[in-house]
Amino acid sequence: MKMSRVAARVAVGATAAAMATTALAAPAQAATAPSGTRSLAAVLTADTSGFDRNPRDFDVLTAAVLAVLQAKPDSPVKVLTDGSVPLTAFVPNDYAFRELVRDITHARTLPGERAAFDAVAGLGTDTVEDVLLYHVVPGATIDRRAALKADGAELTTALGSTVEVDVRRCWYGRQVRLVDADGSDRDARVVRYDINKGNKQIAHAVDRVLRPIDLP
Fold it and tell me: What is the DSSP secondary-structure string of 3-39?
């Protein structure tokens, strides 16, 4: 699928989500509200290594957030810089973005991190902004304990549409998956919990980029 078609379909999906009026389930809340105000943007930008060969960090995500804020300083993505605002973000690691680009370009091999970012940025600022907002659940600090108890919950994202929490049992215990709008691809799995724990803004790493539309 051409990247321009992906951008167009994400834009249409985001518009539909913004117009939706269906009542949605409230996000699961953590048992006690944390008081720390370190922002997720501060966590992401603390890693100054840049594009590298570590698939588990967040170089592509960080570059995408900074690119959106540079182009649109008043973007809703700016909430990630305000640690006083409670939210939960499901942050795709670098491997997740490389998989996304390979999938939508039908490439045989994974691109490098720089190439993955260039491809994502090529979708356009508005599309990247929508995808980022689809990974943010505002108003709730959902830690690991709360997430594991949230099977079936629908989380309203900052984009306006929802993702569903799917908790499954596996050989090592319970696993949290996120059911996005793309029913034809594997759901993202949480692979690391409680990034920035103790603060109002918390994140969980996922191994796939959540998709606000159904891509063939």
Answer: HHHHHHHHHHHHHHHHH-----PPPP--SS---B---
